[in-house]
Write a structure and sequence with these properties.
The chain is mostly helical. The chain has six helices and two strands, in the order H-H-E-E-H-H-H-H. It has a two-stranded antiparallel ribbon with strand order 1-2. This is Transmembrane protein.
C-alpha cells in the first residue's frame, strides 16, 4: 500500500514538474536558473582549464582561485535551485489540501519558502567575483588571452540571465498564499536585506 502511494506521489510530482517547465512559473524559475548555473559552472571550469596559459602543465593565471570560487558557488546555487524545484513540485502535487503534513513535507515547505531569498546572497557575491575576474583578465599579462576573455563573457551572460529571469518571474508570478511572505515593519538590518533580496526573484 505504501509503495503504491509512493509511486503515485512520484508520478504526480513528475507530471507537475514537467507540466510547469514551460512558461513562467515557480517550477520553471527554480529549474532553469539551477540548470543555467550548473551548466555555467561546468563551462567556466572547462574554458578556464582549456585556455589558461600553462607552464609545465601548471596554470600561471593567478585568477584560478577566483574561478574555482565562482564554479563552486554556482554549483551550490544551481543544485539548491534544482532541489527547490523538486521540493516545490512534490509539495504542490501531493498536498492539495495542506492537511496532515509529514515532517519531510514541512521541511521542504520551509526550504521552498525561505532558501531562495538567502541563496541570492551567493549570487550577489559571485557578481563581485566576476568583476574581480574582469580586472584580473584585463590587467594581468598571464591572464590576458582571447580564450579567457571568452570565459569572462560566458560568466557574465550566465549571471545576468539568472538575474534578469528572476526579475521577470518576480513581476509575472503570483505567489501562492502558503508561500507568500507578508511585509513586516522594517525593524532590523536582516529584514532590510531580506526585502532587497526578495526583489531579485519570486
Amino acid at each position: 500500500m505504501d509503495s503504491n502511494i509512493n509511486e503515485s506521489n512520484i508520478s504526480n510530482t513528475l507530471y507537475f514538474l514537467l507540466n510547469n517547465l514551460s512558461g513562467i512559473s515557480f517550477v520553471s524559475y527554480f529549474f532553469w536558473s539551477g540548470i543555467s548555473l550548473i551548466v555555467g559552472s561546468i563551462t567556466l571550469q572547462f574554458f578556464f582549464s582549456s585556455y589558461s596559459p600553462k607552464i609545465n602543465n601548471q596554470t600561471v593565471c593567478s585568477a584560478s582561485s577566483n574561478v574555482l570560487g565562482i564554479v563552486s558557488l554556482w554549483l551550490i546555487e544551481g543544485i539548491s535551485f534544482v532541489s527547490m524545484c523538486i521540493a516545490y513540485s512534490l509539495v504542490e502535487s501531493t498536498c492539495q489540501t495542506f492537511d496532515n503534513f509529514t515532517l519531510s513535507i514541512q521541511t521542504m515547505g520551509v526550504i521552498v519558502k525561505y532558501l531562495p531569498t538567502w541563496i541570492r546572497l551567493i549570487h550577489i557575491f559571485t557578481f563581485c567575483q566576476i568583476n574581480t575576474l574582469f580586472v584580473q583578465f584585463s590587467f594581468l599579462p598571464e591572464c590576458n588571452t582571447i580564450g579567457l576573455q571568452i570565459t569572462l563573457i560566458i560568466s557574465s551572460v550566465t549571471w545576468w540571465f539568472v538575474t534578469i529571469f528572476g526579475l521577470v518571474c518576480k513581476k509575472r508570478i503570483v505567489v501562492p498564499p502558503h508561500i507568500f511572505d507578508p511585509l513586516r515593519a522594517r525593524t532590523s538590518f536582516f529584514t532590510e536585506v531580506h526585502l532587497v533580496l526578495k526583489t531579485m526573484g519570486p
